[in-house]
Design a protein that fits this description.
Layout (H helix, E strand, L loop, with lengths): L1 E6 L3 H12 L4 E7 L6 H15 L5 E3 L14 H4 L21 H11 L4 E5 L4 H9 L3 H4 L2 E5 L15 H5 L1 H9 L4 E4 L1 H4 L3 E2 L1 H10 L1 H20 L6 E2 L1 H10 L4 E10 L9 E3 L5 E8 L1 H12 L4
Parallel strand pairs: 1-2, 1-4, 2-3, 4-5, 5-6, 6-11
Antiparallel strand pairs: 7-8, 9-10, 9-11
């Protein structure tokens, strides 16, 4: 599978990227970066650092720095840490970004791999909306867009109604759901079923001391955040679950509905059914034990 990950690394993004690099069935063509868990410049730096750490070889194309209509953006340091990778105070700045910006890179790669390219978007959807603006044929050239985002008829995680990736750029997300892209939405309905425990991370560090040890270290901060909001058993595999939906949709249950995103008021960022919109496959469940086992197995291939 030819894949681009649109990302804002991010602790859980790091695990998803590690898995994607390790999986033989994935040909990782690039990472595109966006604001979200971090500022965009941090997302790009972290993406390049992670690729170097994991032995990945693909370009990093930097994308949007602000949500649609916004003049400022401030990440939530308490979730992923001030530099995006847990308690790491300094992240090495390795290599350079690709010459193309994210939207242009996405458009070109979709053209060159028409009908074959899957994009897994695990941050706000600004780059995807920008790619649609740049080239309306992006929707038909792309095989599939798999989104980590949304909360469909379940509670949100940044407000009572909204999931964070959708909330951070509700207008961009709404434009994406209004498009003709073939979309799979892997939101909180599915991802909150997948919990990685502290013991899982201990096992990762034993099976792969360098990569697994790094993932254990950065997830300590993330686990602490989840404990602070009452999730005591572990942390959800948000982004990695979306990645797994790209390669093994048979492990998920889905329902289909058009979607729109509420862009004003107290419900901003909420994903709601809209029968006038193109259909979206919405993941409502996942084989959670299988998903955790996949993460463990891919990390164990390192070192």
């Amino acid at each position: 599978m030819k894949l681009i990950i649109d990302t804002d690394p991010g602790v859980d993004d790091a695990l998803a990227i590690a898995m994607a690099v390790a999986m033989p069935e994935i040909e990782l063509l690039g990472l595109t970066t966006v604001f979200g868990n971090t500022f965009t410049y941090q997302s790009s730096r972290n993406a390049r650092y992670l690729l170097n750490l994991f032995g990945g070889d693909c370009p990093v194309a930097e994308g949007a720095t602000l949500p649609y209509g916004a003049t400022t953006y401030d990440p939530a340091d308490e979730v992923h840490g001030p530099e995006g990778l847990g308690a790491m105070a300094t992240v090495p700045d390795i290599g350079r970004n690709h010459a193309e910006g994210a939207a242009a890179f996405l458009v070109r790669m979709a053209q060159e791999n028409s009908g074959e390219l899957v994009v897994c978007a695990i941050g706000p959807l600004t780059n995807i909306a920008d790619a649609l603006k740049l080239d309306p044929a992006f929707a038909s050239n792309l095989k599939e867009l798999v989104i980590m985002g949304g909360a469909f008829e379940v509670p949100g995680n940044i407000t009572p109604l909204a999931e964070a990736n959708i909330f951070h750029d509700a207008p961009a997300a709404d434009a994406v759901f209004a498009s003709d892209l073939r979309i799979v939405m892997v939101g909180l309905n599915a991802t909150m079923q997948t919990l990685l425990t502290p013991e899982n991370f201990v096992d990762m560090s034993k099976s792969a001391p360098k990569v697994g040890g790094f993932l254990r270290e950065i997830h300590e901060f993330y686990l602490g955040f989840y404990r602070s909001v009452g999730v005591m058993d572990g942390c959800p595999m948000h982004d990695s679950t979306a990645l797994l939906a790209c390669i093994a949709p048979e492990q998920f249950t889905f329902q289909t509905s058009g979607l729109r995103v509420i862009c004003t008021g107290d419900a901003i960022g909420q994903t709601v059914a809209d029968a006038s919109r193109p259909p979206v496959r919405i993941a409502t469940g996942v084989a959670a034990t299988w998903a955790v086992a996949q993460a463990m197995a891919q990390v164990a291939t390192y070192d």
